[in-house]
Amino acid sequence: MFEVPLATQTILQPPRDVQLSAGMVLAALAIIVSFLVLGILTISIKLMSMGVLKYLSRREKKVKGPPTPVTEIKVPEVRVEAAPEVTPEEVAAAVTAVHRFIAERLRPAVPAPTARPVNYWVMTWRRDICINLNEYIYVLRSRKFQKYKRHLI
Amino acid sequence: MDPVGAIDSFLLKTGFAGMTPLHAIFIGIGLLLIYLAVAKKIEPLLLIGMGTGMVLANIPFAHLAYPGDPEAGIPPGPLFIIYELFVGNALIPLLIFLGLGALTDFRPLIAQPYTFLLGAAAQLGVFMTMLGALYMGFNLNEAATIGIIGGAVGPATIYTATQLAPYILGPVALAAYMYMALVPIIQPPIIRLLPKKHRATKMRPPRQVHQLEALLFPIVLLVITSLLVPKAAPIIGMIALGNLFRESGITEVVERLSKTAANELMNILTILLTVTVGSTMSVDMVTYYSRISGMPPTELLYKFALIFIWGLLAFIISTIGGVALGEIMYFITKGKVNPIIGAAGVPAVPMSARVCQKEAQRVDPTNYIIMNAMGPNVAGVISTAVVTGVYIEYVLTFYQKQLGMIPWRSR
Question: What residues make up the domain containing B381?
């Protein structure tokens, strides 16, 4: 299988002029055959698609048939609990805090800020709303708030 | 034992002592391929294996790609065994087509069947290069193999080489994969020759293709193409089988086969193929090919260098062919077809389709033609398979009639 045949002369080849004329024929043949085969494929695929689409539309019509009576679907009753009331002042305070937080974060880091970072905890303390922006924890009427409620005015 | 003599004999057995300029050149090229793959990200999937195979096969005295010498009792090297078992008999290229079929979505082609013709037009480089190489001194079997480089389908190039000119397999495969990676550099200058107005053409996105159409496509393809060009049946059959796995989607088992063909099998074959093809560019293999072809190694190396030039020309001419038919379609359809998609007929999937998209957006950033370009792109794969079949059939018949044998098979 792995025998290495020893060659003493160049591989046997037909005369040069015969090869050249064969090459011309091959090029012409390859062009004609490839366009012919791909042309036939183009038509076949087009016909196949048309046939499939026609078959599918027919089947769809058959499946549709007479209109079926609409059955009523019972929708379970959804109970929505009322959202906790928040005063406009509280919302305004929270929005201001968020604005300042975003502005602070988006500010270019260069040159490095020398001022101490703002404690957003402090900023957002209002009667019944607190937002811990430093840790991305948003608490609204939370137990945590309840814990600190007594310290508020 | 004489210590000086022992050191001397050890040094004489190192690779450095056995290094010839040709070894060094091949190792250098192998390292360059690894560099291009890793640092420049040029076809890393293929070039890492090829480069490593090239370096390994050229380590003096290691003889990893040595064909063996039964008379002297020297066994063949491991890389040569893999070459003979999997590449020499075209097994790996065919199995890669199975994976390609399982990977390829033919829906853009089914939605716009006329793009088959763009795939055919992009074979211009295959025909012209074959003629050019033939007139410049290559033999017909070699010229046909070199021409297929322009088809831009690596496995088809390897398959043709194994059938028609196994002694130029290494450079032909390397040229095909290298130029496929260089499509983003080769194609844009040709595309930019088109008028700006034509390049800005917006195309309607291809329609939705039903699952049944996608399922019937490989069957139609297999039956029609195999009956018209029986020599293309192995390639087309594998593509169709892989695609049938993909599109059938009937059971979990078939889906498993599809995934295996597209992933695990393809990866294993890629490793074997790239390392083996790389190893064909070695001193041992050049000597072996020289014996098979009867050509002196210098002549063979000269031909290797010319193959790279012809390969580049093949890619350029193929792109021109595709774009030219695209332009004709633009006029016939009165401006409904963007001629750029003709360049995607060069089936470096999906690279050339991406190039088309990039070039279209260069003129109009809101233009999206990638799905339209995928049609000719996959059509190009089928076109190359058809042309491969025609070439193999014709050349083998020609040699059989002229000489009464296939010379490179009988040696």
Answer: 90-410
